[in-house]
Every structure is written in structure tokens, then in C-alpha cells.
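quick one before i forget lol
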Amino acid sequence: MSDEALVPLGVFERHKAEAVRKADRSISKDGSAPKLEDLRGMSRDEYELRRKDLAETMGVRVSYLDEQFRSQAKATSDGIVGAPHWTAEPWHEPVGTKEVLSAIGNRLRLHVVMSAEARLSVSLWIGFAWVHDAAVHSPILIVTSPEPDCGKSTLLGLVNLLVPRGLAVVEISPAVLYRMIERWHPTLIVDEADDKFRNNPELRGVINAGWTRGTGVPRCNPETHEPELFETFGPKAIGLKGLRIPDTTLSRGIVIEMERKLAGDQAKGFKHVDDDELSTLRRKLARWSADNVEMIREAHPEVPEGFVNRLADNWRVMLAIADAAELGEKARAAAVSLSKRDDEASLGVELLADGLKIMESVGVDRMKSVDLVSALTALEERPWSEMPRTGKWITQPQISRILKQYKIKPVPMKIAGDKMGRGYMAADLKKVLDRYAPGSTPENRRNPVTFAENSQNCRNQVTPKMAENSQSYGVTPDSHPQAGEHCHKANPDEFEERAAILEYDGGLTRKDAEAAASDEECKT
């Protein structure tokens, strides 16, 4: 081979050697071991030459280092001025799952009074945020309290400093939100979410869409007029007073219910600033996630009995983490305990169960709506005599609206010796109940009472007519309010839906919302 042919190779070697020297200078100016923040000053060529050696020196996978380099390069090009806690250099040695969860739990216990189940669940969710790349679904951490000063904001402040790239926001528009998620991939922390969600269905939609990987917000580029998809998938934690948020958001979340501490409860004040212990915890979590994300991705944890669809998807990754820490039994017990609220939130399943029990207790296979109202409101310690939001008896239109979502509609029926009316078939209720809550009984629901007590209350509503014909019952609703109190010219279901919208999005009381809905109908 001629000398001329060797010249390009020599030139390449000189450029390579110079790039290596530049890389050495950029990552080790003070002679110390390379750190993740050193990646910011490296060019793409320099990084390519050193990536394998750097990964080996730092004790992390090359793929993890590639991800960090891309994140640093994107942050630099986009002009991000990230908070200091956004950078977490992986711990210098492997960290056990149980060890890191225990450390998180201890720090939470120091500042926040909460149940052991809630503390473990929050610790698991923080771990989940670090292995978010392994998830298909991203459950929202919903922190709620009935009153102020229950530790909600303190807990969210701690979470913000323990998750990867925690970003606490006060006011935010949907457009800014999905652009932040697309560009920065933060863990979003939104306190006072009940105020921010009100009258803002677009913002709620972005939050809900971020539950599933691959979903996003399509927009048209104003310059090129080409469609763009902004990613919304990412870990999110929200805080609010009470649970007055749509079921579409609630079903995508893991709810942590906070309570105000008692005089004897001990909790150290949290200043909402980073410290060495929190920084060390993030570094350990960064190392733990780098070592375990693939294991979590391949895991198929067993979910508690009855956990299906979204409920199962919300807990699946967290249970995989718990199993790795040998805390699976405790985590599943916590999941069941915290998810009981989901059953209580479903008035529909409660109505199906109570309606079926009423019919079974009096030995009939059908019941008119007017009589079902009377029987339901006679049950003690059940929600039907004091409905949520209204505080009034349940009405026939409300029953119709609730059961309509299960494709159950009132059908014409005539009971012996009575006038023609509309009501419900026991078989229809049972068919749906078997699908949504197999083996469901009122005892398992809100404000439990025994079936014997409920049955007696039902029987007390039956006139002597019942003794003559099991298909007849003479319950009258004279003492209960019925539909017609407002100007219901439209479908009762539409009236109830419009009143609910006015109450939630309009910030009205239920009484004012019904009056406003009635006025709208009367004008049309």
C-alpha cells in the first residue's frame, strides 16, 4: 500500500486522539471521576468516542447513559434552566429495592402523618416514577384531604424532591402542559387541582390522556402547517380538597386520603427545600432504576382478586416493585384498602345491589320506579335518603340516569290491581351486577347495614296487598319528593346531566344548578 493511501488513516487517528483528549478534559477538569452533569459540555462526537468507557466508570448501562446524554443535550438546546434536583448522579454501588423503599418511607414518616398503607403506596409510586419507561399505564397519584392542614401540600412537596425531574406548577394551560411533557419529560406535581380543573375540560383531557403510553395531543404547526403529536404520557401527582373530580380522572388514579394530625402525632416541619438526604435518595433511586428497569418491564405480578381493567393497570408496576422488595403481601393489602374508595364512589353498583336485594326480599321479579324510590329511601344508613351533592332523596329521574349507563331502562309494567307504570326487572339488575360486582352485597358498600335489617325495612313498606299476590305491592310515594318540582319539559335524564354540568363547571350549589337548568328548559 502506498504512503499516500496511509495519510487519511493517520489524519483520522490524530483527530480521534484529539477528540479523546477533549473528552478527558471536559469530563475530568478537576481530576475527579466523571459525573452525569459533565455530559452537558460534551459534543456528540466526543460522547460517541467515550460512551462505553464512561458507562463502565460510572457503573451504569450504556443505554441509560445514552438516555441521560440525550436529555442533557435536549435541555441545553431548548434552553431549560432545570432545578438542581433534576440532575441525579447514580449511586456508586447497587441499591436494593427494599433498601430504597425503606429510606423513602422513613423520610415521609418524618414529615407526614399518614397510614402505613398510604405511606407504602406513595413510596411505591415514587419508585414507579423512576422506572416509568417500563410502564404502559401511568396512574395518577391523587392526594386529597377533607380540610386544610392535613399534610397534603407537604406530601406533594416531598414527592417533588424525590421523583425524577419533579416539576411543581401553580397555574398552567393545556398548551403549556403538553409542550412541557413533550420537551422536558418531567414528573408533574399539581396542587389545588380541583380549582385548576374547574371549567377547564381541555386540561382534564390532557391529564387523562397521559395515563396511556402512546397517547398525545395533535396540533398543527403554525409555520409548516404540518400535524404534530405532543406526547402526554408521564408520571403525574395532583392534590385537591375532597374528591370532586370527574370519574374519568378518578379511575386513573391511586387515591391517598390525608387526615389532620392529632395533638399527640409527631411530624417535623418540612421547609420545601432540597437537602443532602433527599439528594442521596435521588442518587440511589437513579442507580436502582438503571439496574432494575428491565426486570420491572418483564414482570407479571399477580393483582388482588377483583382488580380488573384500570384498577389492575394502576397497580401492576407498583406491585412488581413491591414483589422485588419482598413486600408483595403488604402492598396488595394496601392496594385493596386504598381501592375500597373506588367501590364507594360507584353509586351505580350500589343502586344495582340494593335494588336487587329489595326485590328479592319481598319476593317479586319487577318493581315500579315510584315504589323503588320509596323502598330505597326507607333503608337506614344508605345514601338514598340523602344523595351526594343534593342532600335529598333519590328521585325517579336520578334512578333512570344512573342505570342508563348500564343500558338498563325502565320498561312498561302493570302490577295486578294497579295502574300501568314503568319500572325495572330484577333479572336486568342481576345480569349487570354479576358483570360489575360479582357477589356484591350492601354490606360491602358505603354505610353498611345487614341484609336482615334492609329486608325488614323493605317489608315494612309493603301493604297487605303483598300477602295476597307476590307480584303486587302497594307502596306509595306520598312522603317522598318526585320529579316535576322543576320545569322538566325535556328528558329527565338530560335535565339531571345539565344540572350536574352547571354545578361542577359553573361552580353553583346543587340547588342553584337545578334552578338554572330548569330555567333553561322553560325558556326552550
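fyi The chain has a mean pLDDT of 78.
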